[in-house]
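Quick entry, no commentary yet.
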Amino acid sequence: MRVNFLAHVFLSGDNFPLAFGNLIADQIKGKEINNFPFEVQQGIYLHRAIDHFTDSHPIFKSCVTELFPVYRHYSRVIVDMYFDHFLALHWEAFHNLTLNEFSMDFYSKLKNYDIQLSDELRRFITALIDYDWFEQYKSLDGLRAIMGQMDKRTRFDSNLALSTNELVEKYPYFESQFLNFIKPLIAFSKLKTTQL
C-alpha cells in the first residue's frame, strides 16, 4: 500500500482519468482493472511504474533505511508521506496553480466523475475530500493527523502516528533527499506517460 496520493495525482499531469487511476491504483487487485476505462487503467499502470522506480531509487532506499530500525516494513509508507509533505510545502516550485487551487479543482472533478466504484473506494474518496488531505500534507500537524487516521486502519502496531517525530528530528536530511529525488521522478513519470 502506497499513500503518497498528492505525488501520484501531481505526476499524472493534466489528464484527469489518468490521475484518477493513479490515485486508486493500490486498491485495484487482479482483473478488477478491466472494470475501468482505458485511461484509468493507464493511470493504474503508471502508479505501479512510479512505485517501482521509487522503490529502486537509492535516495528513497536511503530514507527507508533511516527509519527501518523503528518502523520496519512501514518505513516505505512513512517516507511516502514525508515526500508528500515536502511536495505540498514546495508546491509552487513545481506547479503554476496554488496547492489550494489544484486541490479544489481535483476534488471537484472527483465528485463529478461518473464512474462505478466500490463502497470502499467511495469512502476513500469521500475522506480524501472531506479532510482535504492534499492541503493537510503541508503542515506537520496536518501530516500527523493523517498518519493518526492511517494508524487506526493498520492491522498491526505501526506507530505511524508517532513517525512525524523522526521527520522533525531529521528535517533537513529528509527535505534535501526529497528535493534531490523529485526531479528524476518527474522526468521518469513524463517519459512513462508517453509510453503508455
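second:
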Amino acid sequence: MRKSINFKGIEVSYTDHGSGACIFLLHGYMESGEIWEDFVPLLAGQYRVISLDIPGHGRSGSWGKEHSMADLADSVELVLEREGIHKVILVGHSMGGYICMEFASRHPEKLAGYVLFHSTCFADNAEKKANRDREISLILCGRKRQIINVNIPKAFADINVDRLESQLKRCQEIAHSNGDKGTMALLKGMKMRADHSARLADSSLPLLLIGGEGDNYIPGEVFDRLLQMAPHASYVRLKESGHMGFIEEAEPAAKVLLEFSSGLFP
C-alpha cells in the first residue's frame, strides 16, 4: 500500500507491506523505494516492511537546496509516529545508511537494531566532497546522464554487469526519473553530513553490517575498518555482490537480515 505524509511543506511517499514488527528500508542516492520491489516480498511474510521514497527522490517532494541527514532522519521519525511504530529495525543502503546513522544518533531509543547495507558511518573526505561538487556541476550543465552511465554499472560487481543487465537498466531508469533539484539537494546533504564513528562503536544497539566482496564503492579495507570499530556487530560479506546486494544476491541478503532481526523485538 502506498501512503504519504506532509513534511516541511512537501509530500513524503512510502509503501507499507506485511504486518507485525517493522523493518524500515532506506534506499541510496539516485534510487527510490522502487529499488526494493523484489526484496520486500522476501521480508514481508514475517515483518511489516516500510520503504521510504527519501525526500528529493522517487515520489517524494523536495523542499530546498540542501536535504540534511538530520532533516531526512526527522522525516523517518514522522512516518514512524504516524504509523504508531515505537521500535523499528532501520536498514540503510548507501546514502540511506547515512540517514540511518543520523537516526541512530538522534533516536537510539526507537531502534531495535540497525543495518548498514553497503554503507559506512564516515563523513565525506575532501576527495568525496569534490566529487559531489563535480556531480552537481554536471547536473547543472544538463549532463546527469553521464553520471548515471558511470555510477550505476559501477554499483554492480564486475561479474554481474552482463548477467544482471535488465536489473541494471531498471536502476538507470529509476535514476533518470529522479528530479535534478532533489538530486542536487541530496548531494549537498551527503557532502555536509556528520561523522558517526562514535555511534557505530557503541555496542548498546544491535548492528548488522552487510558488504559485497565486489563492491567498487566500499572496498574491503573500508569494510574491515568498520568491523574493527564495531566488534559487537553481526556481519556478512556477500561473495557475488558489488554495491547492490539486495539485487545481486537478494535471497542470501534477506536470509541474513531475517536472522539478525529474529529475537530483537519483545
